[in-house]
Amino acid sequence: MRGFTLFFMAFITIFAPTGITFCEGNPRVVCIESERQALLNFKQDIIDRSNRLSSWSKNGEDCCKWLGVYCDNITGHVYKLDLKPPSSPPVYASDAEFGVYWRSILRGKINPSLLSLNQLVHLDLSHNNFGGTLIPSFLGSMESLTFLDLSDAHFGGVIPHQLGNLSKLQHLNIGGNSNKLFEAKNLQWLSGFSSLEFLDLSQVDLSKAIDWLQETSKLPSLKELHLSACSLDNDPSSTMVNYSSLSVLDLSNNYLSPSVPVWIFSLYSLVSIDLSGNAFEGVIPSSFQNISSLKSLDLSTNSFNSSLPVWLFSLNHLEFLSLSSNLLQGKIPDSIGNLSSIKTLDLSANQLEGTLPISLENLSNLRKLDFSNNKLHQDTSETLKILFICCSDKLESLNLANNNLSGHLTDQLGHFKSLSYLILSQNSISGLIPVSLGNVSSLQYIDVSDNQLDGNLPDHLENPMNLEYMNIAYNLLEGAVSEGFFSSLKRLRVFKASQNKLKFEANSNWIPPFQCQTIELSYWFLGPKFPTWIQFQKDLSTLDISSAGIADVVPSWFWNFTSKMVSLNISHNQLEGEIPFLAVHKLVDLRSNKFSGTLPRILPDVATLFFSNNSFSGSLSSFLCDYKLGEPKLFLLQLETNLLSGEIPDCWLPWQSIRVLNMGNNNLTGKIPDSLGYLGFMFLNLRNNKLTGELPLTLQNDSDLFMLDIGENQFKGNIPKWIGKTFPNLVILSLRSNSFNGHIPDELCELSSLQILDLGVNNLSGEIPTCFQNLTAMATKPNDTDAVIDYFVDGEFIRNELLVMKGRVREYSTILSLVTTMDLSNNNLIGNIPKELTNLAGLQSLNLSGNSLRGNIPAHIGDIKMLESLDVSRNHLSGSIPESLSNLNFLSHLNLSYNDLRGRIPSSTQLQSFDKFSYIGNQLCGPPINENCSKKAETPQNVGNGSHGNEKSEGWLEKYMIYVSVAVGFLVGFWGVIGPLFLSESWALAYYAKVEAIRGKLSSLRT
């Protein structure tokens, strides 16, 4: 030992002057100065926003102690450089946690100084962001490399062929780059990799590399091959392959079809096969059972459409099996219990029926089970009993969402000691949430939303829990919630419990034990005071306390508290006060409160803004024209039903992102400014203001417009012909209650997508265009799957539409996509009712009342099979009522009054069900009016003078009663329909659901 000490001291004496230093803690490791300098040069070209490489400093002499740097214990050379960022946080993590992760991602470019690390064998730059730059070709000169991982690092361009020089490489991963890498025609550069064991080229475009199978099969040492999402659409099934060492094959997310390539079944050494996300059809091939070493098989997201094959469950060596997202049918066979080695079993998103077989009790190694999105029906207690017998001590994840499970959650749930994820949402489970849930200390994620759970929440859960995500929304839970319920939930990050009837009145000094990122308590009763405990949630990103019975002035601390929030919904309460500034990102919903004052300033990244049904006042100028916080990204702005006044300012150009604008029901005056028309709207509502003038020509720029509602204003002039030319996708056009005059332009007939046309209460003249038969959306039955009126923005309702149907003003929301109506009432239209209108077989409401139309009701009016409401009253129509009218089985409102119709009312259950006021003011006979058709109907000219005064008096009384009935009917109908819509957000949330998909479809057609 003494000799070794003398040798060691001599070694220090000799090498100390060279500048080589010993690394602290390990006297055998030294830091090479040239490599230290190379690392510093590398750092200079790296953008490190989180200062992750802070240890890499000129003052830090010992580079072997720098983050991600590993040195050889003897030579001191850097042999490993691992600079991948920390693992990404879970999806329900806070914005702060996500922010830390995103900032930890390195950016910039790769400095050639890495060439000085001539002993480097391991280089990992994965999961960073190099902005689409090329993979440096000089990496091909680092001949010592055995491990190279550049995956998911946002490289772009062509793979440099110089990488083929790395003859010692055992591990190569350049997959997952979002900027697609393009290898032109071949993979011949792989030929030099005689030692390569792992190859991942996922998301590299190999559509032109027809030699991919031949070249990869030549790699003698290859054990893992990952070619996911490589645009492989060829099937080289006739090619002889020789993957002698291959154990893992990943060909997922390609275009392989229609059957599994037969060469795969000759790879008897395969342990794992991933063929998910292709286009395989028919029966699952039985040849898989020939691969006796197989432990993992993923055939998910294909189109296999048979029943589950019995032979599949004879593969008792399988540990992982996924057949999710196929078209598999029938029952789960009892033979599933033969999978004695299975750890993960995923049959989700199929069409499987029946119950879980009792043979599942045999799967003693089961860790993860996913049968979600099927048609299974079983009592939940039976399901838990089966799983308890098989694997209560091992089961980690259970997903049975979106089936037909019933029954109750039993205390047996508390015996699943290893359970981390439990998802039972979208079933018909009833009863209480068991207190024994608190025994599952490992539980991190539970979703039992959208069931029929009832009763109270437990006063407390038995033990402290690790629960981070809890979703109990959309159930029938009721009663008061105690503070004790939350006492065990100290790790809670997401709490979703909306759409229940729960009440929570915390003490004013209550401090929650958790720090949540998401809290959703819509339809709880939290009031009447504003809940003060919210101010202790420092990581809060999403808050929904809408419809929560809060009637209070919002405290000033709350507006300062919102700076971290991405989504805020406090709508449908009775909140008051003025708002100085809204420091919320993305979505703000303040609808249906009592907020007053001027419109508050918002952050530039807000996308969705609901201010409707409040008492905001003043002009729009300060909100729009004086904005100086950056380029606004606002997509939706709803200001409907406030006290806004003054002219619409002409300063819309900075607000280029707005596509949905609703400023109806205010006191806005003046003309529509030209700049408003440059925004490219999808929906524009200016209804019920005091706007004047004509429509600006700049609106012609809005070629994507789906809805234009400028009703109940003071616009004048002719209806612009360019409306029919410019808006090919228009679904709703309402010009109601203005002063438009002239003829209805034929160009409106080009609006083939139009479902709602309302031109009522104007000064229009001329005849009804016969070309209205070209409105093809009215000629077919409305299809909810193609509707563009239903639309969501971050799950939020945009607006309803007021329509005059069945003689009443009605507000439509959830079924608006299924409505087709034409209203030309109360104008000066003349001529006949065009027979061409009877071609609009999908029309549900037709209102032509209050005009000067003459002639007969079209004989084939009964061809409009879907008609529910017909009003042609107060015209000069003559002749008899067409027999075909009795064929309208859906007709529930009919008004033919005050015309010159004569003769017998056709006999049908439908027509006789209406009262006599539907026919009054004509010369008709038969039920339901009292006139007997056996008598000759008398015209007004033949009425005797002796009774004239009496009949005149009776006629006056009759008309008076009609007016009274209409007024009462209007009030009852109006509030009977609109009242529930104000109170029920679930109805409102159905509006505009599918327009984004249709918009994309239409855009693709145009391109």
Automatic annotation (TrEMBL):
It comes from the Eukaryota. Residues 33-72 form the Leucine-rich repeat-containing N-terminal plant-type domain. It is a single-pass type I membrane protein. The chain crosses the membrane at residues 960-983. Keywords: Cell membrane, Glycoprotein, Leucine-rich repeat, Membrane, Receptor, Repeat, Signal, Transmembrane, Transmembrane helix. Residues 1-23 form the signal peptide. The keyword Secreted does not apply. Gene3D superfamilies: Ribonuclease Inhibitor. It is found in: Cell membrane. This is Leucine-rich repeat-containing N-terminal plant-type domain-containing protein. Belongs to the RLP family. Its main location: membrane.
